[in-house]
Amino acid sequence: MITSSTQDLSIFSLILHASVLVQAVMALLLTLSLVSWTFIFKKWFALRNARAQTERFEHDFWASGNLQTLYQGTIDQRHNAGALARIFESGMREFLKTKEKNMHDASAILDGARRAMRAAFQREMDVLEANLSFLASVGSVSPYIGLFGTVWGIMNSFRGLANVQQATLANVAPGIAEALVATAIGLFAAIPAVIAYNRYAHDIDRLSMRFETFIEEFSNILQRQTHTQP
User: Fold this and answer.
1) Using one digit for the tens of pLDDT, what is the confidence trace for 97-144?
2) Which residue in 143, 199, 163, 123 sits closest to 25, CA to CA?
3) 48-106 pLDDT, tens digit each
4) Can you give the pLDDT at residue 5?
């Protein structure tokens, strides 16, 4: 009798014998968990590459003595250069283009370069922040979806007691157990998504600060070049 009860309360048995609605809730939560884990790993690799590319370009930028040479090299390897390199390329391209048209208007030259870098900055941030909203949604919604499955399962369990003359724990335990599995799966989907979202949001904020700092520093360099060159 004890062995049969243990088998009946195993996780897989509870899932298989759950009501159709509770099974649908579990399937939805498992799907959300699978998709969120996919995004978690993809975002981890993307941010790791972004940090490495940013550090490499910062080193090349400050080690280079010729912005034209660095600019040309960035154009040649644009897709592999990284976000910060593309921001630099946008600013430098606009600087050179505007300088040809407004040789004596230093403010117009600098404003054009700064606007180009800001636009490139927003594009790069959109790429880095992709799928973060999905992780946030999974982290906030999954527990409630699991709770819905739990409430529905418990309702079915107590409704089944209407046909039983003497209610015992053995009558209600399997139904409550299968209902609680939905909450467990909801937490299983939510917790990694919340942790990943918080971590990646922090990493993206740090990259954003580095990009904005570079824009200001590069703008100062362009300003000095504008005033020193005839």
Assistant:
1) 887 776 667 787 888 889 999 999 999 999 999 999 999 999 999 999
2) 143
3) 999 999 999 999 888 877 888 888 888 877 667 789 999 999 999 988 888 777 666 77
4) 42
Find out whether 3 and 134 touch, Cβ atoms under 8 Å: no
Q: Which domain holds residue 32?
A: 11-228
Which residue in this structure is represented by tokens 């919340």?
A: 194
What is the C-alpha to C-alpha distance for residues 140 and 187, in angstroms, rounded to an integer?
A: 10
- The total domain count for the chain is 1
Tell me what the mean pLDDT of segment 176-203 comes to.
90
One-letter amino acid identity for 130? Answer: A
| Structure-block tokens of residue 205 | 């904020």
Contact 90, 117 (CB under 8 A): yes
Residue 66 inside a domain? The answer is yes
Residues 6+ apart with CB under 8 A from 58: 84, 210, 214
CA 5 to chain centre: 43
Query: CA torsion 215→218→224→228, rounded to 10°?
Result: -130
CB count, 10 Å around CB of 148? 16
The predicted pLDDT at position 129 comes to 93
Examine residue 6 and state whether it is found in any structural domain, yes or no. Answer: no
* Residue whose tokens read 């053995």: 170
Identify which of 17, 32, 41, 43 has the alpha carbon closest to the alpha carbon of residue 188. 32
